């Protein structure tokens, strides 16, 4: 009984600690960071493939940044991609912003996103280069937030995606995954000295990465953000996060899409950081519930009352964090949190097995070892 009680207190305590760290680490929404020194010229490399629900809006946001001098380099692999005329229309609507489109595919790795970025990286003229996903909704102070997070020991600054504008229950579930779960734990890891890169937005000092072997070094791992984390650590530097994560508008989502996306990310974490991934089974509501049920059964306590108390102890701080930071909250939030925590153990278990997944039209095969990855060509 004593061991079970101690385990339950530990699981809930760690959860509270992560909420507290995230609450302290994140700045108020919308506040512009203060910068010391100059505002250098910046290159923003954006890989694109196809047109998504919010493409016009996310594209337009990149042309409206409050920064004195920057360039946009849009990278497209296929010359027939329908996104190209959309980009050119946005460029024509914002002639004052320096922008260009580069078309072609450099096969430096099995990662199609990285291959698409290579030409943009080599074409970038600035010392500071941001690799930004096309579905990031950039705030006006996007570059300020990234630069403000750079410190003397920084090797890379990045941002987690913050889910917004969900349409339907499963999109709410994705918000539950992205915001008060993944973002919270990523900020906790950074605060404890275990910063992990996130590929949504990455600020690099170009001479530093070039001296370490160049952008192709990000192909050493299955995912470019995992490779970035390990490369920065080898350089004796740290991965730091912005003080406010950037939004990713979601729109409508299905259970199949949630399962596919979360399974893909989980498998990538499993093969790149297996030790840390193994610990993920301990987060969420299920572990403390199971321990609490065992303790309640031993003490002949009411299981329903114990379950209600544990769920309140887990979810109220999480909902409080979302309310404090003005993240997505609705009447579907609590059911979404419950659905997320039921799905997570299933995804974790499935991720230890090999298999393939789809990423933007590319079939990727992951084995049970970190070295087992291949991009399966389309027939």
Automatic annotation (TrEMBL):
GO molecular function, one term: ceramide glucosyltransferase activity
EC number: 2.4.1.80
Membrane topology listed for this record: Multi-pass membrane protein
InterPro entries: Ceramide_glucosylTrfase, Nucleotide-diphossugar_trans
Protein's UniProt keywords contain Translocase: no
Domain of life: Bacteria
Key words, A-Z: Glycosyltransferase, Membrane, Transferase, Transmembrane, Transmembrane helix
PANTHER family cross-referenced by the UniProt entry: CERAMIDE GLUCOSYLTRANSFERASE (PTHR12726)
Protein name: Ceramide glucosyltransferase
The species this protein was found in: Pseudorhizobium tarimense
Organism phylogeny: Bacteria, Pseudomonadati, Pseudomonadota, Alphaproteobacteria, Hyphomicrobiales
